Amino acid sequence: MTTQDEVRREVREWLQANWNPDLSLVAWRTLLAESGWGVPGWPRQWYGRDLPAALTPVVDEEFAAANAVGVAKTGIRMLAAATLLEHGSDDQKKAFLKRILTGEDTWCQLFSEPGSGSDLAGATTRADFDGERWIINGQKVWTTSAHHADYGLLLARTDWDVPKHQGLTYVVLDMKQQGVEVHQLKQMNGHASFNQVFFTDAVVPADRIVGQPGGGWQVAMTTLAHERRGADGLRGANRDSGLKGSIYDEERAEIATVMAPYKWYPQRAGRVDLVLPTAKALGRLNDPVAVQEIARLLILAKTAEWTARRARAAQAEGRPQGPEGSLGKLAASEVARLAARVHTLIQGDQALLAGDDGAVDGMIAEVLLSVPATSIAGGTDEIQRNIISERVLSMPREPRADGGPFREVPRN
Amino acid sequence: MTTQDEVRREVREWLQANWNPDLSLVAWRTLLAESGWGVPGWPRQWYGRDLPAALTPVVDEEFAAANAVGVAKTGIRMLAAATLLEHGSDDQKKAFLKRILTGEDTWCQLFSEPGSGSDLAGATTRADFDGERWIINGQKVWTTSAHHADYGLLLARTDWDVPKHQGLTYVVLDMKQQGVEVHQLKQMNGHASFNQVFFTDAVVPADRIVGQPGGGWQVAMTTLAHERRGADGLRGANRDSGLKGSIYDEERAEIATVMAPYKWYPQRAGRVDLVLPTAKALGRLNDPVAVQEIARLLILAKTAEWTARRARAAQAEGRPQGPEGSLGKLAASEVARLAARVHTLIQGDQALLAGDDGAVDGMIAEVLLSVPATSIAGGTDEIQRNIISERVLSMPREPRADGGPFREVPRN
Amino acid sequence: MSFVLTDEQQQFRDVVRRFLDDQFSTRDVRRLMEPRAGFDEAFWGKLNRDLGLAGIIIPEDYGGQGFGYAELGIVMEEMGRSLVCAPYLSSAVLAADAVLTLGSEADRETLLPGLADGSLRGCLASQDYSGPECPGGVTTATAAQGGVRLNGIKDFVIDGHTANLLLVVARSADGESGCYRVSDTASGLDRRCLTTLDPTRKLARLTLTDVPAVSLGTPGSLESPLQAILDRATVALAHEMVGGAEKMLYSAVDYACTRRQFGRLIGSFQAIKHKCADLLLEIELAKSAAYRAAVAIDQHETVASLTASIAKCTASEAYLHAAAECIQIHGGIGFTWDHDTHLWFKRAKASEVMFGDPSSHRARALALWSDAI
Amino acid sequence: MSFVLTDEQQQFRDVVRRFLDDQFSTRDVRRLMEPRAGFDEAFWGKLNRDLGLAGIIIPEDYGGQGFGYAELGIVMEEMGRSLVCAPYLSSAVLAADAVLTLGSEADRETLLPGLADGSLRGCLASQDYSGPECPGGVTTATAAQGGVRLNGIKDFVIDGHTANLLLVVARSADGESGCYRVSDTASGLDRRCLTTLDPTRKLARLTLTDVPAVSLGTPGSLESPLQAILDRATVALAHEMVGGAEKMLYSAVDYACTRRQFGRLIGSFQAIKHKCADLLLEIELAKSAAYRAAVAIDQHETVASLTASIAKCTASEAYLHAAAECIQIHGGIGFTWDHDTHLWFKRAKASEVMFGDPSSHRARALALWSDAI
Hints:
The complex is a heterotetramer, with two copies of chain A and two copies of chain C.
Chain A lengths: L3 H15 L6 H11 L20 H10 L10 H12 L2 H13 L4 E4 L15 E4 L3 E8 L10 E7 L10 E7 L5 E6 L8 E12 L3 E2 L5 H13 L17 H14 L5 H4 L6 H7 L6 H29 L7 H24 L15 H8 L10 H12 L20
Parallel strand pairs in A: 1-4
Antiparallel strand pairs in A: 2-3, 3-7, 4-5, 5-8, 6-7
Chain C lengths: L6 H17 L2 H7 L8 H11 L17 H14 L5 H15 L2 H13 L4 E4 L14 E5 L2 E12 L6 E8 L4 E6 L6 E5 L9 E18 L2 H34 L3 E2 L2 E2 L4 H29 L5 H27 L10 H13 L4 H11 L5
Parallel strand pairs in C: 1-4, 2-4
Antiparallel strand pairs in C: 2-3, 3-7, 4-5, 5-7, 6-7, 8-9
Helix pairs in contact in C: 1-4, 4-7, 5-6, 5-7, 7-8, 7-9, 7-10, 8-9, 9-10, 9-11
């Protein structure tokens, strides 16, 4: 068995021999992908080194020590990669994985539809086989980064005469084609981070099906599980190394593009970090009522963090990944809701002020207008409660009203 | 149209001529029932005077002014009377109504069963017709006063091959017979105010059916509507006139018997009245956190009271009685729950002490152990929310899982 | 004390609702919420010509309708439901009440007819600016030739940047507080529309530098009458909030009764039904409080301040809760700019802290608690 | 810092759970909750002979097991789940910790082996009686021949009426606080079992009138070590509460998965399912807090008091909420005496205010807040 020290020595030697900040970003990442050190946890056959999860942090540490740039790791691309690794054909892996790591391609996820939000499996965007290619018609929504994505992970209905979960097919769609139209969607907080995507006879070649025709729901579940686990690498991706040099500039630009739609996510989560500083600055820690509410919030956020850590530690010890993602998501909704209340309690009528007039550069106002998204995006609180009660507590499902051929299911 | 003044003169004259505190309670109430002044809102044919609801308070005022005892008005007897007035045969009215008013008979309500609590219409106590009489077998529960009641309002299943609401029959059951066994049921707060009632080949004569065989659910709805409206006369029945004389003593004794099982109801409701006095006595009004919670409670209780008054005023103006009962019941649950929290916050560890050691003669501890009943008794909060959403907000019912012949409905 | 609308009041509500349904939509809200807009001259004119709404609480002798707060409450509820953008709270409620309460007979005769017909759009600048760099700032009135000069900064003045009758509370050197009329074109007056999270109702900051002013009525100990004016405006606001909350609830219910997921109307799921039932209860309680508070004003009860606080904190929580759940029940679409729900959500959020947040009103309610309510 | 039980800890939990499942049921609870009972000598003996539970935190040198609060937490969770009635919190946690922390080496050698094998059942009387007629009363220690005499009233002493080792906190004339051993048969000692709403754990009032006592360790400024002892007991209690809360949740879930109404298992209704999901989250958060607080004690972290407060207030609310919802989901039957749920409900309610109510712990948590947690 490989030890930590062996891995550390090996990666350090490789970096000493190969790391070169004067390369272009893509050139360096190509080298990295081929060496397997970019994603050492992946299979050797596909740009990895089959390293157990417990040992990959060592690699990250050595990259950080050497100020070496890593592969592209943020955004939907990582969900695409995880899904293709699990369900893709060898040809698909060959075609897409490397360019995902080099950052040459960006991706988006085309699951939600206006008529199927909570009920993702109720998608009605259709893919019809014309004997040679799949012809796509319909509409998707809540698509982050669709306006610059090269490829989309599309869930489409290919069979209307079987129960709804069995008639879906998962395909890789080339976004840069006629028949794909992308419109921005503005939110109530003024940001516009999502898109609507319209398909009019868009085309997907036959070999771009991931998994089997009719087996799209299982493939989508893989993508969603990785998303709930936070594999989209959005956490902490905003840290800037501050290093000077063209390759670092290139990396920063790449990350900035991917992260742009997520700028308001910290506000959506409630900006718990602002609570104590603003309360102190405004002398609100002398008010016992404010103290109770602030404590309630900080305790909720902290115990949620500990609970997530406990779940991760259990996984690290090899216990199965459960639906803790749903517990964490529900906790995050509570935190965000309570944070909005607490910010208001602290600020009083100053909470009204927005933009340049607003407290903490308008961040408080942005929090107040952003938190309502937390309990909706990525599955509503109600869906999370269904998942928790059914999959963790093993409580019975509700009687189904959507069985039988999808064609006959009542829908919008 | 009769005016207030006319009614006032008429009742005053009648009382001057007839009120005699030296009569026995039953003798006086018999006179009263026959005069129609005991329940002036009832039909003339049945011990009333057809007086509109707006005018009956005048009668009460004159009785109070004369210190005249009224008819028996508390407990399930009034629900029995209201139900018989609406659905009973003339023979039944003749047999029962007068003795209800004189207080000679007491009644109980036999609806709930161990297997049908929220789902009252799922009753499985059976009534089988033997060609002459109905034979009753089964078990009821949560029956207040069953141990001394003369008659019971029984909902029993007479047809197992029709949908569940259509196979129920409503009968008047003589409680003083073999085949009816009553056991006390002790609650978690130490009181024992309810009974279980077991039927083993108990007998109901054919002419004791109220309404039609199979039409029991509609009749039960009448009883329940009167119950939710508070027609059981439990509100304010504890006021003692303090008057001396044998007829008053008799009345007090009669009321005491009926009211005994309800002794803990004020505690169940949360004893909001104790909050300000105890908070003041313990100096807790200096604590801003306590102040918030106390205010929250008092405001909740007060706005619930105003809302009930608004609903009554609307009814008094002739607008239809709606399902406001469910809103009031839901509010009462909130009040009770919050009251328990507030009492604890005020008392701190003194809240632990019970019995003679306890705050306010142990009343606070009794509140803490009684409030959980509020959100259950008389229909759970969940049932009230169903009623409100379906009947006030016209939201769709859930898909039925209990249609078809009752025999085939899955049950406990 | 009656809690039930009379038939006349019910008819009045129907008239107001029909008018607003015809004349005002969220398309207007979206137009008027642009920076510095705030209201529409034509709509304001029609509102007053056709229904005389600006004069509701102004006595008939001064050109008004001489109604009470019960009727005002009806108007506010309907305006809350339709999310009307107009200087109604500022002018027809606050300014009209200030002139009625504080003004001399001459002031009333001069100002009330204009306020009643809407040609005057008043505002009441009662709150001093209190930023970190200027805590506890007080606007002062200094005697000068032919009147006084005002200096200071007034904050959160509703419609303060568009009003053409400015009433400003200030304190003189001897500590007396007074209410002063300032011309909207006075020199030394700077009016800035604040950027707030609720673009549907505009708030302004008035900076006064040696601004000439004349006293409204006689300066004196105005704390108590001023508080009473604010209390009455608080009750009017509570009615507006109750109307908005009801709109949010029924909007959510309507959507839930047409939207299908999992082969069912989402309104058939208990998760949604029970949410709506709880909201209805909360809103009914808040409505009772608002009605009760209006009665207390109209009957000149001593508990008017207490009931105002009860009305405000229950309405605040009900409205915000209803607006948030309305977004939740709509799901993603409810969070978009193009969907209308956020317009009410923003009004709810801003109204929550206007005239005091719920916790301050709860504390005041308990301090004033009386069995007479 | 690890939040996950090791395999050994998991096995230990299994052993404790199996033992309690076999040896203790709610039939025992009902027997022991009779007035003045409180525990069962035979069960207590077996608990300590078979599993050595009374010695969990006592070092091996003194006959204990030398475990930390992680293991103690496991025991408390399981005891909470089974609603064990035994002098465990009083003796194995509070008294053992007091002797360890405050006692001299001689005290430890004399007392710990007995506490570890259960032959000594200790209690710690730390709280002074404070009734309306005697606010702020303080128990005093006065020097006398061969030791001291104690005077005062101690309140809410867990198992104080049955303990055979009484440790009493008192203050001397010069203001020093000390902890004193009192014989359970001492003259002048009156012990009364209080009537509380939770008959499953007995609390006593000790009235001391010139009671002879000897000092445990050296009197001095004991505020800080005493607070630390109470903090650690608070963490142990939080674990017990988490165990009880889980029991309540799973009891509700089990019932909902067998009870049918309207032709369906009630556990298939969202009203019930979502309640249970929310409870699970709340309990998981409280459990994380309890684990974190145990780690802080075992690692001697400076944030131990802070994490104790977090653990206590989250566990209090989760337990009470779970017990109340467990009654609600059971419906009427859950409110009856013969059904077991109320036993946990009462323990939850009493534990809520023991060692400080949630709001006092929240306030303390914020005062102590640190980024080091």
